[in-house]
Request: fold
Amino acid sequence: MIRKIDHQNMGRSNLGWLQSLFHFSFADYYNPANMNFGVLRVVNDDLVQAGTGFATHPHRDMEIISYVIDGHLTHGDSMGNQNTITRGHVQYMSAGTGIQHSEYNWGEKTARFLQIWILPDRKGHTPQYGDFRFEWEDRHNQWLQIVSGIDGTAPIQIHQDANLFVLELDIGHSIDFDLAPGRQAYLIQIEGSSLANGIELDTCDAAEISSETITVSSREKSHFILIEMRQH
Reply:
């Protein structure tokens, strides 16, 4: 089963320095019928103006992944970490018992990144931070796994039975992703346009998929992220 999520129907916010698309209820966008997809609680598609960002604020008991699409994103936190990542790179934070952090765009152009929150397997984990600079070509016409659960083998391991993959697909190419029984996935068309099991996806669209093989065919050069997890 596959269900398209049209970006035109998503929640929106425009604070001037920050423009956001909300895949699920967040901030002033509240829809009780759209709170989460399994353990996937938040996906925000954020545009952050140069020289601005999120001032220091707290988090707890959430697995938080930031995937940069364009520009620069600089993280700082109460554990003393401070690093900048760019296109195709990832920051990961397990907020656990509590952490304070900031995210700023100190670059010269607008930054775009996906802010992804996944519910942990339990509360009270020790806070952790990491950033990873994946080679762009490793996702070219193939799925690149960037996140797994603790029992997995991805460079980023989170406290939940969930896996994240990214893909850049050339125009006219197709690729499959097999979902095992009892598993589901959330596919986001970050850039470009494609067909997912025959359903048209344009930039910023998404699809909820459960227990079937996904065939993605690009109508133009495309960039995707896929979040795979146990069905809930």
